């Protein structure tokens, strides 16, 4: 789907319609990689080393959990930046798109 670089839409700070820049932002950074019970933390603590059955930290399934993908498209997150007051508003759009192209 093609997305224009600018649109005219309502700015809640200016309280009127203004020209706004469109920016595609990532769906979110990875958080809490070293939380309790995470594989990364366990490896840093040395829980997957040694002889014998390593249990939970031992062998992995042939296809990793994050690679078992069923969805072919991604949801888009759009950031609108007002050109008048230069304030940004984030909008989480619930539309699934294969590829986003900015014109
Ligand atoms: Zn504004």
Please give a structural write-up.
The longest helix has 6 residues, at 39-44. This protein has one domain: Roll (Nuclear Transport Factor 2, Chain: A). The protein has a four-stranded antiparallel sheet, with no helix packed on it. Strands 1-6 form a two-stranded parallel ribbon. The mean pLDDT is 81. The chain has 103 residues and is mainly β. The chain is built from one helix and six strands. Zinc ion (ZN) is lined by residues 11, 13-14, 18, 82, 84-85, 87.
Radius of gyration: 22 Å
CATH structural class: Alpha Beta
Quickly count the helices.
1
Ranges where pLDDT stays below 50 over 5 or more residues in a row are none
Level-2 CATH architecture: Roll
List cofactors, ions and other ligands.
Answer: zinc ion
Number of domains: 1
Largest sheet: 4 strands, antiparallel
How many angstroms does the end-to-end distance come to? 10 Å
Major sheet: arrangement of strands: 2-3-4-5
Q: Determine the structural class based on helices, strands and strand pairing.
A: mainly beta
Q: Portion of residues in helices?
A: under 10%
Strand content: 35-45%
Judging from the principal axes of the Cα atoms, what is the shape? Answer: elongated
- Number of DSSP strands? 6
Précis, in short:
This protein has one helix spanning 39-44, and strands spanning 2-3, 6-11, 16-25, 74-82, 88-97, 101-102. It has 103 residues and is mainly beta. The chain has a single domain (2-102), classed as Roll (Nuclear Transport Factor 2, Chain: A), CATH 3.10.450.
What order do the helices and strands come in, and which of them pair?
Blueprint: E1 2-3, E2 6-11, E3 16-25, H1 39-44, E4 74-82, E5 88-97, E6 101-102
Parallel strand pairs: 1-6
Antiparallel strand pairs: 2-3, 3-4, 4-5
Bound molecules: zinc ion.
Residues 11, 13-14, 18, 82, 84-85, 87 line the site of zinc ion.
């Amino acid at each position: 789907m093609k997305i224009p670089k600018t649109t005219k839409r309502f700015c809640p700070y200016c309280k009127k319609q203004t020209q706004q820049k469109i920016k595609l932002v990532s769906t979110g950074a990875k958080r809490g990689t070293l939380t309790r019970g995470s594989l990364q933390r366990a490896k840093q603590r040395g829980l997957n080393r040694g002889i014998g059955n390593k249990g939970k930290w031992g062998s992995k399934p042939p296809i990793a959990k994050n690679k078992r993908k069923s969805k072919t498209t991604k949801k888009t997150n759009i950031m609108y930046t007002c050109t008048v007051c230069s304030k940004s508003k984030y909008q989480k759009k619930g539309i699934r798109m294969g590829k986003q192209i900015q014109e």
